[in-house]
From TrEMBL:
Protein name: GerMN domain-containing protein
Superkingdom classification of source: Bacteria
Classification lineage: Bacteria, Bacillati, Bacillota, Bacilli, Bacillales
Keyword list, A-Z: Signal
Organism: Geobacillus zalihae
Membrane-spanning segments: none
InterPro entries: GerMN
Every GerMN domain range: 96-187, 248-337
């Protein structure tokens, strides 16, 4: 697998430094109930049902219609990557069914698609229902139109559905039904899905150049891509040797190595950046001690937004990691691009890829 670490060119550096903070995503609290049944009111014979006035009804309906909430939709970008985009959707209790409906081509997502992005589920597909099992498995049932996709999109569709649904803390795995029937494999290329799919199965997988996949395990990191004058973050799962016992160090090293050549992704780390010591983990916090190669510009002690965001997004994908602290040669004297001291650990950003391109 040929990779390249991109060295900062002046125009690209200026663009990324200006836009690096553009778009990061937020996780809602765990959804306590997925797609609950609608309540039905019954009126006994001779019993009058007291109704609100028409003006009160209209006011309530209008207020309800304007309530929105941020959700993540995993869409396909111009390079074929499955990428999270945070959008405002109408507030509803049927959250799992709703986000799936917004993944359907030519569906309600059409009016909010960022430039260069497309939906993933075949046009005409109806979401027949969703069911959350006690073990955290979400069963998604689709109409037969779900089968009408190109073979090269199969894994993208599966990853999009899985990562979109598992944004909710109480959904751990996803199983697929078509017209009420459980699917052991995807319908076109027969990708196995019998036991369900989770984030542990990866996204935008890179396997080229791995001689023995059985002696490796996946690590997901976030690289940067550009659309017009904007930047956004792309999760990529790579396989690292089982001899690498520290997945935090492995993720950092993959970020420094940069994306594959010709992938359309951009490397944002200086090629001489490296960890001085092994990462330290305690109570959800990871401390990384770098050399001066972590600096993203000629300004002393400044770490660029894109470098910081890539590190935090990548490491908080790992189980138990909640925040990241960064030092240089043991000293916590870094500052962000806007001049603020980086003295506290950084938690996963509230929003990712929220910009309109």
């Amino acid at each position: 697998m040929k990779r390249t670490t991109q060295i900062w060119a002046a125009p690209l550096l200026a663009s990324l430094l200006l836009l690096g903070g553009c778009g990061l995503f937020g996780r809602d609290e765990a959804v306590k109930e997925i797609d609950p049944p609608q309540e039905t009111s019954y009126v006994k014979d001779g019993q009058a049902l007291q109704e609100a006035t028409e003006s009160q009804k209209e006011g309530k309906e209008k207020a309800k219609a304007t309530e929105t909430v941020k959700r993540e939709l995993y869409l396909i970008d111009k390079n074929g990557f499955v990428v999270p985009q945070t959008v405002e959707l109408p507030k509803t209790q049927a959250v799992a069914k709703q986000v799936l409906e917004y993944l359907v081509e030519d569906g309600p997502v059409s009016e909010m698609l960022p430039n260069g992005f497309r939906a993933v589920i075949p046009a005409g597909t109806t979401v027949l229902g969703t069911k959350l099992e006690k073990d955290g498995t979400l069963i998604a049932d689709f109409s037969p139109e779900f089968k009408n996709y190109k073979p090269e999109d199969e894994k993208r569709i599966l990853q999009s559905i899985t990562w979109t649904l598992t944004q909710f803390d109480n959904i751990k795995r996803v199983k697929i039904r078509i017209n009420g029937y459980d699917q052991n494999v995807m319908p076109v290329n027969k990708t196995p899905i019998q036991d369900g799919v989770s984030r542990a199965d990866g996204i935008n997988m890179e396997a080229n150049g791995v001689p023995d996949i059985t002696n490796t395990h996946p690590v997901t990191v976030y690289f940067v891509a550009q659309q017009g004058n904007s930047t956004y973050y792309v999760p990529v799962t790579r396989r690292v040797s089982n001899k690498e016992k520290d997945d935090i160090a492995a993720a950092v090293n993959e970020l420094i190595q940069g994306p594959e050549q010709g992938s359309g992704l951009v490397g944002v780390f200086q090629p001489d950046a490296k960890l001085v010591d092994a990462p330290k983990y305690e109570d959800g916090k990871v401390t990384l001690n770098f050399n001066e190669g972590i600096y993203g510009s000629n300004k002393k002690n400044v770490i660029s937004d894109v470098v910081l965001n890539s590190l935090v997004l990548s490491l908080t994908e790992q189980k138990g990691v909640e925040s990241v602290a960064i030092t240089v040669n043991g000293k916590a004297n870094l500052v962000t691009e806007d001049g603020k001291p980086l003295t506290k650990p950084v938690a996963r950003p509230q929003n990712v890829n929220t910009g309109t391109f």
